[in-house]
Structure prediction request, 296 residues.
Amino acid sequence: MIRKEALRLNFPEEAIVDLEECYKKLISYKNFDTDFEAVRDKIFNGKDRSFAENLKEIAEAAQVNRYASDMVILLLCIPYLKELYKKHDLDESLLYETMSDLRCKLFECKSVKGVWGNFVAYWYGEFFRLTRFKLGRLEYEEITFKPSRYTNIVKNGDPILTCHIPSEGPILEADVIASLKKAYEFYPQYVKDGILPVACHSWLLFPPYKGRVFKEGFNIYAFASLFDIVEYDSNDKYSDLWRVFNIEYSDGCLSSLPEDTSLQRNLKNFLLEGNLMGDAYGILLFDGEKILTKNM
Prediction:
């Protein structure tokens, strides 16, 4: 039952086989149908991310791996999402482009947790509630603009689009512009005086990385240069460490971090020098053809 959707999303055969085994165990759990219906309702109709706790309870009751179980249940929700897309006159092609995020998370889970699955299932409420869509290279959703120091076009309290960057390879400026053009057409309600403002809250925009971790000439350097940075912060939690090194932070791990890529080497050196990781909130302005905030 899940194979059809997994194949449509280009999951590797090895992953599909493992997920099918998990599915068999899930459906043999006597309360699965009832529990699935309940969690599906919360995923589609809830107002928060509390459904993630229900997903955990299902995996524990069925005695299966939590991450594999979460991915199986998300795949099982796709046919219901198709009906919702039809109801709102949205193309099925948009659905599969948007849900390709599952493939990104599949590989992240395998790299970080060692299992084919999904370890951030809480992230998917917005996908199933039709508030997050993928248009080319970037994903978009509406948020409330909060920074009070920025007053160009948008101000504190205004609705605004924010973008997310799925981990599906290089982030090229041409692909970003192509995506923004799609967003410009898809979200006309956010265009103000011919300008589409797009926010981004990401570790990729953290100013101390620029020129040190992300060297000039890096695609990430170019991406960060598209935004005006409104605010940024550092912390000692290393919560984004896995995004670069495919491992989660533990005491004493910094010195043994892998150095397989230039990004890994640069970030490792940055951290060993005593610097902290961080993230930033930025905004770009797009006029339908070019990015006005580009500051390279």
About this structure: The longest strand covers residues 277-286. The mean pLDDT is 96.
